[in-house]
Amino acid sequence: MLELHSEKLEEYLTTVYNTPVKVQEITPLGTQETRDIKGFSYGSPCLIQCTIENQTKLLVLETMKPNQFGHEYPSDRAATIIWQHQTYNKLPQHVHAVDLGAFQTDNQTLKTHGKSTEYFLLTEYVQGTLYHNDLDIIKQTGHTSQRDEERCIALSSYLAQIHATKKDDPQLYKRAIRNLIGHGECIFGLTDSYPPNLEYIDEKYFIQLEKKCIEWRWQLKHHTKRLSQIHGDFHPWNIMFQNGVNFTVLDRSREEYGEPADDVAAMTINYIFYSLQTYGAMNGPYGRLFILFWKNYLNETGDEEILKIIQPFYAWRSLVIASPLWYPKLTPNIRKKIFHFAQEMLETKNFEYERVETYIK
Q1: Which of 19, 80, 141, 164 is the 20 to 30 Å CA partner of 288?
Q2: Number of C-beta neighbours around residue 216 at 10 A
Q3: Per-run averaged pLDDT (10 residues), the chain, 361 residues
Q4: Mind listing the domains of the chain with CATH numbers?
């Protein structure tokens, strides 16, 4: 078991900052509210309050827990954390990565080099409110505010901004599409994570879904000119808002460059998710935010082609939000509607975002 001891942590941080560091407090991160909504998470973050040259500083130290989504081996987890350290600071508005380190064989000593067991990432701490809190408030009030619309547009514009950075690397785009299907965190990893003998879905559904996704892979892999800078896990639990429309993004994942539909699907499916939980259908305030997000994104990017690309990305994200592991408290009826949406997506050649409710019914 990994353990954080103040004296070992002070030794490590002193080497990072090249000046004496005094650790004041170590606190596990994650609110009860978040745990109630999501039944599973990858990371194990701790908030560190310390003193550096008479200045109080807040840092986050995060490891990765072993899990069935392609993180079973220490090398799997190390690869993810090394990638995070190399890419966090390249993405605009992302929380700043300070250092990459590893626990040593005694599971207590922390060094940046040595005989390593588990790797960890040290980042700065960002204050604010996660975007899912805004969506929770809409659920309570039944309407959106001007700030809700402004934040929705800000998130959409942010994606348009980062997706404008392109890269000419056909093999990297093919890898991104291949990962969508076969990565442990993506479609095949999600279908494998569902327990057997569920009352609301059977194995036949997953077999047919996987077959359709393979067809989509062969269709999409040739769109290599679409390779763009992406976040890779752009959802309401990875967006930290400060005042107004100012926000910081957290925990970019998997790929530095990929398909823009990855990010758009990751965010917009949550408007569907919240609407189904609240109304049992796709309408009302979440429906308006969904359309607002899409209209702004298409207006700023001109990327109408994404409407022929996003379908398997929606299928993947549907498997996430319908998962009894990730979201254990959903009703079977909501899960069935999500599965139906995924199925409809894979049968749809051109996604009509203004008629999204027809894919759910």
Answers
A1: 164
A2: 20
A3: 79 91 88 44 78 92 80 79 89 92 69 64 94 97 96 98 97 96 94 94 96 97 97 97 96 94 98 96 95 98 98 98 93 96 97 97 80
A4: 6-124 (3.30.200), 129-360 (3.90.1200.10)
